Amino acid sequence: MDSLSELLHEAKAQGHTLGQMAVLYEAESSFCTPETAIKQMMIHLDTMEAAIDKGLDTPLPSVSGQSGGDAQRLSRQNPRLLGTMAHQAMVYALATMEVNASMGRIVAAPTAGSCGIVPGVLFAVARSGDYTREQMVQALFAAAAVGQVIGQNATLSGAQGGCQAECGSAAAMAAAAVVELVGGSPDAALEASAMALKNTLGLACDPVAGLVEIPCIKRNALCALLSLGAAEMALAGITSAIPVDEVIGAMDSVGRSLPAELKETAGGGLAQTPRGRHIARSLYGEPKE
Amino acid sequence: MRTHKHLSVFDVVGPAMIGPSSSHTAGAARLANLARRLLQGPPRRARFTLYGSLASTYRGHGTDLALTAGSLGLAPDDERLRHAASLAKEAELAVEIVSEPRPEGLIHPNLVRIELFNAQDAVNVMGASLGGGKVEIYELDGFPVRLLGDEYTLVIHSQDRVGVLTSVTNLISEADANIGNMAVSRMRRGKSVIMCIELDAPLPECALEKLRAQPDIKKLTVVEGLRGGVG
Ligand code: SF4
What we know:
- The complex is a heterodimer.
- By secondary structure, chain A is an all-alpha fold.
- Chain A is built from 13 helices and one strand; from the N terminus they run αααααβαααααααα.
- The longest helix of chain A has 24 residues, at 34-57.
- Chain A starts with a helix and ends in a 5-residue tail after the last helix.
- A six-stranded mixed sheet of chain B has the order 3-2-4-5-6-7. A four-stranded antiparallel sheet of chain B has the order 9-10-8-11, sandwiched between helices.
- In chain B, strand 5 and strand 6 (134-140) form a beta hairpin.
- Chain B folds into two domains: 9-141, CATH 3.30.1330.90; 152-223, Alpha-Beta Plaits, CATH 3.30.70.
- By secondary structure, chain B is an alpha+beta fold.
- Chains A and B meet through helix 2, helix 3, helix 5, strand 1 and helix 7 of A and strand 1, helix 1 and helix 2 of B.
- Strand 1 of chain A pairs antiparallel with strand 1 (16-18) of chain B, so a sheet runs across the interface.
- Iron/sulfur cluster is lined by residues 113-114, 158, 163, 166-167, 205-207, 212, 216, 219, 264 of chain A.
């Protein structure tokens, strides 16, 4: 899959969804059958759900002791401002990220630091209606199609492109997934991806003490909201003025121009605030560069 | 033959792994797991030298646990990873961590040297965690190599003598196996070489035995494809 416009063109020509296209692509390029690919994705879906349930079940402190318990905190509260689905998406994203930070088992989507967004949004939407596991798996394939093209043409790594590459890509992936899940067109799915990714351009990767916790955990929850918003706009027929492939290109070039301090080195941004440095000192006993 | 590595959809949604960091935890576990496969028999002693970012943040990422778990043969998504320290005790594996946050001439920000020992054998690999749980081994026992661990690979330590290569490839083709990729690394002419041979399918045990019986072959290990995705 070289570009999303090409993929969209093919999908329309064959009357397929993005998810179906991704299944075919995977089967062809990995020399497996479509059924094998679907089975593998089903396993990932189960792992995602297990992580959500585990994160909601017990408050999990992180390895560093700097975070944990927020998923439960948010889930206990009846939402006062958000709708149920948006509230759930944030809760699930937090739960998954807290499992990750406590050395639990998660599915990278596309990375461990951004692993809460896709399952958070997907399970919140799926549990709000009558969706089958098979439909959810197809939605994950749609997400994967978007992520695959981003990875091929830009980057999915915070160390290379900043957090826009991780959480931004995850938000774009999740947006496409839920648009397809609720029956939106492949066009709408990609418009949603474009809008989600546009809204994270320039996002720094600035983890405090170099750990995948602050700001990563809450950033996942908030990117889940972004994703739902982009999907909602796309389902209403709103389109992105900049085509999705060009947004991906812009993300790549913004990533290249971000200074090294904002690409996972903990050398800038939140990591270098007085409190950020204090936390790093309390963990390592010496100032981090 | 696959010439250019494509990105699988399971590199994007997946792999399943133990957090918190795909590069500092899952990648570290994978590197050590690969090193473990290159050692004959279970390790009794392990020394991990962490460089750069791995060195400065390993505690909060559980990199030490991940490396220990990998050397015990645990996969990067094994939930027992967090208990690696007690598992090592049970397995009588002594672990030493050396941390070099700012070495000179760092070729990659997430670099680690893994040394595993037991009574009969030792391995020494230098590898990088590339992100997303992907890794690359650059150096094996002092030889420059390139091992990703995605494909079924034979790693052969052998004398550098005329005809060794031919006899190895002949034995492989006799077993009807197709070579996807092959790299030979030598230090000084006439001394020893390391061959890394990627095969499309596993070699039957009898063919492995025949290879091991070759007088010039000092050691043969198999690194099974540890793909994140299908399989
Ligand atoms: S801030 Fe950096 S480490 Fe945290 S989620 Fe974003 S890219 Fe990953």
